[in-house]
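We close this part of the discussion by returning to an individual protein. The sequence in question and its structure tokens are set out directly beneath this paragraph:
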Amino acid sequence: MAHHARGQDDTIIVNTCAVTTTAERQARQAIRRAHRERPDAKIVVTGCASEIDAKRWMELPGVVRVVPNADKLKPTTWGDSKPGLPPSRHARALLQVQQGCDHRCTFCIIPYGRGDSRSTPTAEAISRARALTEAGHREIVLTGVDIASWQGTDGEGLGRMCRTLLQDVPAIERLRLSSIDPVILDPETGDRDLWWLLENEPRLMPHLHLSLQAGSDLILKRMKRRHTTTQVASMLQHARALRPNIGVGADLIAGFPTETDTLFNETLSFIEEQAIPFLHVFPYSERPGTPAARMPAVPNGERQARAAQLRAVGEANRDTFLEKFVGQTVNVLIETPDRGHSPEFAPVRFAADASPAVRGSIIPMSIYSVSEGHLLGRSPA
């Protein structure tokens, strides 16, 4: 992602990602394109891909500097002596509470770019959340590489931090969790405060996006994930008992090394049985230097075909889930004049004859139909 730097004439900042080889290739292409279009511009590179191999990025045309991840969020790195919040562009605001990861999933390069897990202290999260609500944000999304591993100085976990945040910053109208490791929501051993919030706190959005990756126990083991399909099924049953319309998302990798047709079908069946509506499906992408890259590979065409099958099941699940809302009135956070999201993170579009809504407002919409993966709504009569 390229940005023009504030207060730095003719400087282009490229923030790289190392999650997939495609992301890395696109960043290199962006740098070469930027240099072609503006040969006099200074290009500064930061992010995970450049963290892993700074020297390779310095060799690209026009690159004058590689900024370590640890420094990229410090205003002084960019010559700004006044620490402030990034300019607001969204109705919902992202609040990063954690960085890095202590786990070593066999497919993942992230720990090599982001380092070990580091948690934002609760007091700092509170002051950032206050500033965000004062700037007019109605919804705050807690983000990080592995937010489930968030830990406070007294050993408290993510749920306790969320409870404190909601208690100390009453102006937060909606608090949402970004992608989360399912282990934290094991009904037996998971975070009791998170379960308390799901049961008792309407300001915590009824939406969980799980870092699931597979629905086959053998593949999960080879990925070195820490959850089992039984745990996830139990957690979903528990969550749906507390919040019947909870929106559930999942990240999935299709065609992980050693995945046979039989093992893939286990994942496909699991997604169908668990009726998970919001899928992010990625065909497996080799990352050199990771254990999975040395395992027997699934042919690329097969990975793409399996990803397509998973997406088709996801779309069927999504439509069934969305149909539940027809006839209901839902509160929608407005992101553009004609669309927004429900608390469950269901996308909502407004009737063509609806008057434009104000970005950042939360308005009730009467849902009358489902179309192309969206709820269709109009103002209640």
